[in-house]
């Protein structure tokens, strides 16, 4: 027991929460602080080898290696991101980076659910397995990446291009983050809705604001926005009144397409943007949308819609240039016959007696980079009986749920890293019966991958 009778695992989790590793705006060098903290942890408690790689300056990726007894077998990758989204401190009832714990056992902090809990749970599960002298058959790699919250381009995205990533290959299965589940079950994600961040740009004539000028940039843009919002209303209706809570309705957020107007810009500005010339018709206006295309809708179908909306108004649209161009669906098969890892995952969970609900992740995680290159990836954060609080004010996780998650990973790592060669895996030099991993990425507009039940 640690201080105040607290379990040392919990104390370490709280310590990690105090590092302000906010993507984009943390204190200078804080990413390195987080990685240094993790490497000390590995040195002191796991005694495993590790290395860091920084394809983007100041954005280190930490790779920890636990060698398997049969290193030629495809590896098991446990991925987590150590960056967190900012906290609006004025809306929190506690300090977002103090990792306070209530008497009842709730641990408050930015990253408590997303996903510093998982970073520590992986480490603690492996610490326990090492302590009880369990040896993995397959090599296990822990990867800790930055910048997931910014889209992963300068984190997992660039990591894929490095020799350090090549060294993890072939990968059998990768685990990455999921979401809390308020019910008694865990949720596991085998795919994600595909994020499209769009910019619509309208142009038109100028003139005096007192006249009827036709075809203005603003009017055209508003027409496109109205069509987009109409589409949004229809999708909202399809979801029903549950608001995406997976337990009150048959449909979850992952089953419909969301669209939100998240940026509007226009107007002739004065004084560096402090005021506007409201009597001058602006010649340009822009809107930005966050769209998440559900797995049932081929991206080409959505593309046709937005093309229509824009063509009708004579305006243009483009993908936001700062996002990673992953615009297709990538799914991991949940057919045991196609993907034996799925069966192993389910069996290990069933062994623990906890129900599992497979779903499509409503947002985007680093899993999509892995699925895109054919790696089977499951999004899983072992948090049940817990409200979904990622990115919210007063994010918390109960210490008992955190501790239970370590037990879960212990079981999972034993099952996955202890797995003998699968029939879908080639013997050295020989052919395999078929790829186990992610279903083939469908061509633009194609169906969801083979074996994936939607
Ligand atoms: C377009 S990539 C964005 C990634 C981000 N991930 C977590 O919130 C998300 O908004 O889903
Ligand atoms: Zn996350
Ligand atoms: Zn997040």
UniProtKB/TrEMBL annotation:
Signal peptide: none annotated. It is an enzyme of class 3 (hydrolase). Binds 2 Zn(2+) ions per subunit. InterPro entries: Aminoacylase-1_M20A (IPR052083), ArgE/DapE_CS (IPR001261), Bact_exopeptidase_dim_dom (IPR036264), N-acyl_aa_amidohydrolase (IPR010159), Peptidase_M20 (IPR002933), Peptidase_M20_dimer (IPR011650). Its main location: cytoplasm. The active site is at 83, 148 (proton acceptor). It is found in: Cytoplasm. Gene3D superfamilies: 1.10.150.900, 3.30.70.360, Zn peptidases. Residues 191-316 form the Peptidase M20 dimerisation domain. Zn(2+) 2 binds at residues 114, 149, 391. It holds the Pfam family Peptidase_M20. GO terms for cellular component: cytoplasm. NCBIfam families: Ac-peptdase-euk. Belongs to the peptidase M20A family. PANTHER family: AMINOACYLASE-1. This is N-acyl-aliphatic-L-amino acid amidohydrolase. It comes from Tribonema minus. The lineage of its organism: Eukaryota, Sar, Stramenopiles, Ochrophyta, PX clade.
